Amino acid sequence: MADNIKVKLPDGSIKELPKGSTALDVANSISPRLGQAALVAKIKPSSNGNEFRLVDLTAPLAEDVELRILTEKDPESLEVFRHSSAHLLAAAVLELFPETKLGHGPPTDSGFFYDFYREQPFTPDDLAAIEKKMAELAQQDIPYRREMLSRDQTLADAQQHGDFMKCHFIEQFVQPGEQASFYKTGKFVDFCRGPHIPSTGRIKAFKLLTLAGAYWLGDAKNKQLQRIYGTSFYSKKELDAYLHQMEEAKKRDHRVIGKQLDLFSIQELAGPGLIFWHPKGGTIRKLMEDWMREEYIRRGYSLVYTPHILRVETWKTSGHEGYYAKNMYPPMEMDDAFYRVKPMNCPGHILIYKSDLRSYRDLPQRYGELGTVYRYELSGVMHGLLRVRGFTQDDAHIFCTPQQIEDEIVGCMDFALAVLKTYGFDQFQVELSNWDPKDRANYAGTDEQWDLAMRSLESALKRSNIEYKLIPGEAAFYGPKIDVKLVDAIGRLWQLSTIQFDFTLPQRFELEYVGEDGARHQPLMVHRALYGSIERFFGVLIEHYAGAFPAWLSPTQVAIVPITDRHVGYAASVESMLKDVGIRSHLDARSEKMNAKIREHAMQKVPFILVIGDKEAETGKVNVRTRGKEKTEDMSAQDFVAHLKHLVDTKATSL
RNA sequence: GCUGGCGUAGCUCAGCUGGUAGAGCAUCUGAUUUGUAAUCAGAGGGUCACAGGUUCAAGUCCUGUCGCCAGCUCCA
After folding, report:
1. A190 touches strand B (CB under 7 A)
2. What ipTM does this complex have?
3. A397 is a catalytic site residue
4. Which of A287, A312, A584, A610 has the highest CB neighbour number within 10 Å of its CB?
């Protein structure tokens, strides 16, 4: 029959239906329950393409297709569902504030947003009203209907209504002569590619979360729009679980834990983005630095130190005075010369390199420094330890020959992985950034240099067996790079490790080495930082461990709790045993009840609490309460010391 | 830097429509000598971020500044 089409389903079966039937018809013909559960469909037309694409359930099928009906079980449905939720939000906003102009409203990883333009700002009360209106519209179970309209007509309409953003989108996404797809939800009409879920009634659990500014087209020179963020789920239960999870994540926030555990502070009197490391935080930092320095030495780096301020002439030579000046603190004058606080360590290391004539036999030179730098960051971007104005980089610069570069990069990658492993990170993203081929003119360095650099970066990643994302256009103008990023408590991504080529500085400073051929050559230069910034790394660590640091990093490793004053003597002898092997312990001899002391030390997340009473004093034992464990254990003081020492020496990430 | 929100004791927060501040925890002092997450009693502690303004009267209203929070932008 010519008017029928064949629909092939995932199980291989084929259904024949009249032409123009919809995916929903197919779903209903399989079972009414599937029809109800269906949210969206995926089709692969027989005539063209070998890729499935998402379509509305109500889209008429014009030819033979392979079809998949998607329900809540399919991850792709959630995006469509949330996109439809964004439309519901926009519909509610237009009902309440008809003068509002629409931007766009996509789904995000955890929900959706919609951008609006309106002279008057939305208030939190407005948000509540909008949410209520959304609930009403959902209640009415309004279908999402797709309509194809003429480009010219809709453009003219949009222009007439002053919908400047929609005009822009239509002009950009619809070719002249083509039709533009719109989605209607009751009175609400939005230019949109779709697809959407069948109707608003499916959106049963949603919540508007925050109100924020967003620049039109992401450009600070443009108008600022009002962005309303929200999230939606298939059920109230999932929504509640999500909100609960967000609450829990907030408890892991390094700013909250930093205060609770008295690790660091930022003080208004001193200035924003400047970190005070308190004694406990300082202890952890010292341990992080010690380990890093040991690794530097083990891996053939030389430790160097460079000044915090350098004459502006250095910054002119490096080019920072030109292109980085807006991020630098202003010059200060001394003895008729101007000095600037360093925003980077590289020029200092270069000056060390340049202090002597280098032979190819001297290379590679690896200069490492825990160098504190200061950068001016916009006032709105500071964020606890994760984005600051003064920070210490574990910064190293490698100067080497082209023949050595691949091994050097492999060495860097190996080092970077050792860092991640030591701190127990298993979730991270690696990005390899190349230049933007459309924009070659804006990059420094020769084609050969870029080629060599990209090859060595890629092969290092492959040799290290690391999955990575190649991102064209993300490279700095001075060279390609590898970045390692980690997520914070609420899912934000932060860059830590970076391995970057620099083709400009060796040239600007006229670096050279004498090759085998007796001629002068320019060395390759690589910047690499693995913690990135010690402040940021510490912030991510706090969240990663939720403040419960592994034994080797804990500021106080053992709290000793004598039950009464008469046990203090024996407790002190246990403490001195611990101190003898370098364990950080605290004898809590206050006249408090044992329970109160245990509670306090437990809240401070001390890994081990030793309770000492008559029983222990008589037998030379200690009663060990291990963080996170229900049961306490009795063991000899010697055994406990050995156990803890082992955890520390192996940098065990669990107790 | 931009948009919106916020800023009360060391910390977490209360303080209705303006009538010159309060709780819990923490701190200090005393008592208490305790077996696995808070012993009891008493005391001290605030120019309500800062600077102006309106008012008979401002923590509360207005303006500016600083800082914090969320997002945007930036991130050589």
Report:
1. no
2. 0.93
3. yes
4. A610
